[in-house]
Amino acid sequence: MKVGQRTIRGHSGFDWKRWLFNLSKEEILGLDIGSSAVKLVQMHRTNGSYTVTAAAMVNIVDGTADKGEHKQINAIRAIRESVLASGTAIRLAVCGVSGPEVAVRYFKFPQMPPEEVEEAVTLEAGQICPFSIEDGAVDYRLTGSEKGGVSGVLVAATNRLIERKVQLAGGASLGCALMDIDGLALLNCLSECEKDGDGKAKAVLNIGGFYTTLAVMNEEGVPFVRDIAYAGSNIIRQIAAEHKVPAEIIVSVLTGSEKTRQLRLELGDNLSRACRKLIADVTDTLRYYATHEKSAAVEEIFVCGGFALVEGFVELLAEQLSEKVTLWNPFEKMRCEAGIECVELLQKSGPAMAVAAGLAMRSV
To answer: What's the pTM value of the predicted model, to 2 decimals?
Structure first.
């Protein structure tokens, strides 16, 4: 997807690693600008395997509480710090977007001439997008020409959302060469890291600060992406309200602060109650997927995102969901050539950096 303008284009074939926008191949950064932290990953591919050459994660000061200009300044500062911490000299990035201003949908049209597909996709996007496509960017990928029809996947995002990410990267002196969808980046990373060839549908559940992304790839490689408006910040606020303490204290407890370790023991039931809505939303979405996408049911969910690192959270999901649930660190199967500090970062916080890894795998 070209950034900063509306575009619509399509290609035959179905290579997710070259989704949306092709340039001459050059070094890039995967830059995940989240609500509370910036994650940066640089890697190169040799003989079908990825090696991490730089990585960093920097918290955004008051990222979930601040608003407006201060939030933007703090985000840019965190991006700059992540570039410095990583030691990279690359200044070209792939960024991602998610949330209610993003749409990913499968389509199937009656057989038609290739020159008519673009117009059909435009009309389809106008029907399914929760925003005016005149104020956004649209792209699509054909999955192939089936007997009696043409099928593919379209993506769309508002210009406002795209431009914000471009401005944040630009404020830190980084160029944004490609704008990706977080859910597709996660599936891209999953397909590279979990090559078991079993042909079964798999799901990635990324729990961020403001949104939870559930992305599924069916046995034929066709994606399904939904962003759920209930995530880590909602869970933290609910627990804080029950204990009648500031949210910052709950954050310190959930992240393992030594000063509040005793209070952690009291949060088990609170965490379970606060996660009920998230679990219900995930269950409903998977049920919808199995019913409407005409695909095999998901058997395994790979859980990642910053909130996935909270002690007991993945175990809670495993107890409540019928699918197999696994904490997913995509870097466990990659080499790292960026030094011991980077190795330790990826071992400790790898699940929180899955989107950045998927972005870094894009070819531009």
So the answer is: 0.88
